[in-house]
Amino acid sequence: MPSRVDEIMDRRSLRRKLTFWRVMTLLVIAAAIAGVAQYAVTDTRGDHIARVRVEGTITEDEKLLEMLDQIRKDDRVKGVILTVDSPGGTTVGGEAIFNSVRKLTESKPVVAQVGTLAASAGYMIASAADHIVARHTSIVGSIGVIVQVPNVAGLMEKIGVGVTEIKSSPLKAEPSPFSPATEEARQMVQNMVRDSYEWFMDLVASRRPLTKEEVRRLSDGSIFTGRQALERKLVDALGGVEEAKAHLVEKGVAEELEIVEWEPKQSDGPWLLSETAAFWMGGMRGFDINAALKEIGAERLFLDGLLSLWQPENGLAGD
């Protein structure tokens, strides 16, 4: 005959199982509702102006690229407002999005609307649009390329750690964070930076009413307010979303069309392992994981390759 203790243990085990399956059922229902809602919104859109946000550090964002291609193919989208608010990022990421926006302009009018910041690769992407609108106090520019390699040789020496390198050639894996860069390594990287810099300037000159020499004079890393950028022909007008829409109307887009926010679809992987899950699980504890990572700038730690990124010592702010 089972004892009283066994009965209590069985009941507790049953409660745990019921609680687990209740939570799982709620999660599945929530995911299903979100999926149905997203499908319904997408499926019932009529003719509209699509608004796409390019924010934060630029990388080769496959979801964003897929969405831009989807917008290009959607006949209900009559014009696009590309809202850019970015300090830049990888040159490869900027190039990929730039090319995607250029392809989009072949079938629909596209206007870039600069928020707080469109610098480096952020400005590269904005220049892909047919027209650029910036706020009076937006930050625009920082045309250039940078490579940064940390040197931890001194730190490793202090903690008594050494690295043995066996290389096939002197420039293999150079510059290295474990030793000071040689002059040959510096020259190799400098040549690569210079080539990408010339490519960036050619790109801007092809998109703006400026000669290559005029672009070169503006490409010393300087940043400008929206007003200064307008004087230097880096932007076309001052204003915000309303002014951006007004330009689309001038290009033949119906004025009565609504602006509809487009967002990249969530990960196709298992829901519990997706970014959405991180947001939900963090939110249930009152903590947004993704927002926290962006706040501390952790996403920049994972950038690799040539960078086109504005990195001020201290952020600019208005009191």
Gist of the model:
This protein is of the alpha/beta class and 319 residues long. It contains eleven helices and ten strands.
Characterise the protein shown here.
- This protein is an alpha/beta fold.
- It has a domain at 46-144 and 221-268 and 306-319: 2-enoyl-CoA Hydratase, Chain A, domain 1 (Alpha-Beta Complex).
- Helix content is 45%, strand content 15%.
- The protein contains eleven helices and ten strands.
- Strands 1, 2, 4, 5, 6, 7, 8 and 9 form an eight-stranded mixed beta sheet that branches. A two-stranded antiparallel ribbon has the order 3-10.
- β4 (110-119), α4 and β5 form a beta-alpha-beta unit.
- α2 packs parallel to α3 (91-105) and α6 (183-207) crosses α7.
- The longest helix has 40 residues, at 4-43.
- The chain is flat, with a radius of gyration of 25 Å.
- The N and C termini lie far apart (76 Å).
- It comes from Chelativorans composti.
- Belongs to the peptidase S49 family.
CATH topology of the domain at 46-144 and 221-268 and 306-319: 2-enoyl-CoA Hydratase, Chain A, domain 1
The number of distinct β-strands equals: 10
Instruction: Pick out the low-confidence regions.
Output: 269-302, 314-319
CATH superfamily membership of the domain at 46-144 and 221-268 and 306-319, which one?
Answer: 2-enoyl-CoA Hydratase, Chain A, domain 1
Pfam families: Peptidase_S49 (PF01343)
InterPro entries: ClpP/crotonase-like_dom_sf, Pept_S49_SppA, Peptidase_S49, S49_SppA_C
Keywords: Hydrolase, Membrane, Protease, Serine protease, Transmembrane, Transmembrane helix
Protein name: Signal peptide peptidase SppA
